[in-house]
Amino acid sequence: MDVKTGLFYLFAAVLLFAAFRVITARNPVYAALYLVLAFFQASAIWLLLRAEFLAISLVLVYVGAVMVLFLFVVMMLDINVDALREGFWKHFPLAAGVGALIALEMAAVLMGGFRLAEPKTAMASGPGTSNTLELGKLLYTEYLYPLEIAAVILLVAIVAAIALTLRTRKDSKYVNPADQVRVKARDRVRIVQMPVTRAAPPVAPETPPAGETKA
């Protein structure tokens, strides 16, 4: 076994351990950190396969942006983990059945072996070849339609997220920014003319009640 094969088994073992800890960790922050570790191991495997562009994209996009945002959301929301675990055993049979089905499908694929067909547009290889350039050519020629379908699905997800976030709620206070920009000084401040001084009203002398004399 050479060094490359040994590194592959090492990264694969750590990746499987991190993926297992993602679904078994009790703390959501620990689960997110294990997911970051899994992403790093996957990028290392991409490097072993000489796919440097995919490796750096995995680190920058998922580790550098998505997981950091996820950690901020988890820590700011202060999720009650005990409430989430109440329905665990209730949904466990369904989850176990789906997991067993996925495992059987993966076993059927792996037992049949990998039969990779040669793409119509072969990628060039050599010491002076750019992986990013060849990957772009292959994506926009051979896999153009799947790429467009994935882009449409992502666009629909973005529009749905914006629509759910910006829907009008009656219990929330909202100020239109356009109205704030178009506001004028006379709409904000009203100057009222008032006299500087005003004479105090005269005070009437106190009169004693009937039958009493003032000392």
How many strands?
0
Please name the CATH topology of the domain at 1-82: Four Helix Bundle (Hemerythrin (Met), subunit A)
Molecular shape:
elongated
Secondary structure class reads mainly alpha
H and E string: HHHHHHHHH
The first-to-last residue Cα distance is 122 Å
Question: Which percent range describes the beta-strand content?
Answer: under 5%
* Average of per-residue pLDDT values: 78
The low-confidence runs, each spanning 5 or more residues with pLDDT under 50, are: none
CATH superfamily of the domain at 1-82: NADH-ubiquinone/plastoquinone oxidoreductase chain 6, subunit NuoJ
Figure out the total of helices: 9
The CATH class of the domain at 1-82, by name, is Mainly Alpha
Query: Quaternary status of these chains?
Result: single chain
Computed over alpha carbons, the radius of gyration is 35 Å
- What percentage of residues falls in helices of 4 or more residues? 55-70%
Q: Any guess at the CATH architecture of the domain at 1-82? A: Up-down Bundle
Main sheet? none
